[in-house]
Write a structure and sequence with these properties.
259 residues, SIR2/SIRT2 'Small Domain', 2 domains, 6-stranded parallel beta sheet, 3-stranded antiparallel beta sheet, 11 helices, elongated, binds nicotinamide-adenine-dinucleotide, binds zinc ion
């Protein structure tokens, strides 16, 4: 049962602001049918990250790593945005949410209509050749299963950040800029175990922002940087948050110009 009190507390923080930013993780897409890495039914219950999610593992045994990536890719392909993705897009349209920094690679924020999305870990949509760096849409090369290959004969890697790879420089710059200048940071569906993404809430907090965490479970952020932790599923909480904020905004706009 979601605490209405806590959601209202968060709504009060957000009301009237135009500088909120969201940091999202795999948990926000769980209700769209994409498994997260950690937590119940997470992919790490089946796959050891050291063997399946590092650049080193990929280069050594691409076939093995592609077996996990194919599972994630097909989950992403069939998925549609849920209430949490749609709610964040609504908050952007309302002028409250300035941007989303996402660790997700599923494209669901954009599918929901969010426009200012920083993809911190890349996107599963694109594949890149490990040798000549040519890029391909994933759907063109993954159709037959197995390890997709480039025209040059070398293996293709999804354009996502594996452990051991740097964050794309533009995403890193934009994320630091957004996180360091927001008034409220909404941290949704992330275990905050992956570095350097886990430093983003710390950066916001140190710059004076309030941190609202939406996650069924507490994380190590909950005790250290979070101001309000709302336990529960993201879709329901964000839906209530948007409806509370719409109520706060609508009576003003419904009155129209006063002449
Ligand atoms: P994570 O897998 O480490 O943790 C998921 C978190 O989401 C947990 O804390 C869990 O309690 C929470 N959660 C589960 N269900 C939820 C719900 N309904 N609402 C809100 N929260 C919920 O995820 P992470 O911190 O993003 O780190 C994992 C890495 O895995 C990221 O870098 C990401 O790139 C990648 N990943 C992405 C996807 C995707 O794009 N959808 C899927 C799996 C993994
Ligand atoms: Zn190539």
């Amino acid at each position: 049962m979601v605490s209405l009190d806590l959601v209202r507390k968060a709504a009060r923080l957000l009301s009237g602001r135009r500088d909120a930013v969201a940091l999202t993780g795999a948990g926000i897409s769980v209700e769209s049918g994409i498994p997260a890495f950690r937590g119940a039914q997470g992919l790490w219950e089946k796959y050891d990250p050291g063997e399946y999610a590092t650049l080193h593992a990929f280069m050594r045994s691409p076939r093995k790593v592609w077996s996990m990536l194919s599972e994630l890719l097909s989950a992403c392909e069939g998925a549609t945005p849920n209430g949490a993705h749609l709610g964040l897009a609504a908050l952007e349209r309302m002028g409250i949410l300035r941007s989303i920094i996402t660790q997700n690679v599923d494209g669901l924020h954009q599918a929901a209509g969010s426009r200012r999305v920083i993809e911190y870990h890349g996107n599963m949509d694109a594949l890149v050749c490990v040798s000549c760096w040519k890029r391909f849409p994933a759907r063109d090369r993954c159709a037959e299963g197995g390890v997709p290959v480039c025209e040059c004969g070398q293996i293709l890697k999804p354009d996502v950040v594996l452990f051991g790879e740097p964050i794309p420089w533009l995403a890193q710059e934009q994320a630091e800029e957004e996180a360091g200048s927001c008034g409220v940071l909404l941290v949704i569906g992330t275990s905050a175990e992956v570095s350097p993404a886990c430093n983003i809430p710390v950066l916001s907090r140190e710059a004076g922002a309030a941190v609202v965490e939406i996650n069924p479970e507490p994380t190590h952020l909950t005790r250290t940087v979070t101001d309000i932790h709302i336990p529960g599923p993201a879709s329901e909480i964000v839906r209530i948050l948007v409806s509370e904020l719409s109520r706060a905004v609508l009576p003003l706009s419904e009155t129209g110009p006063r002449d």
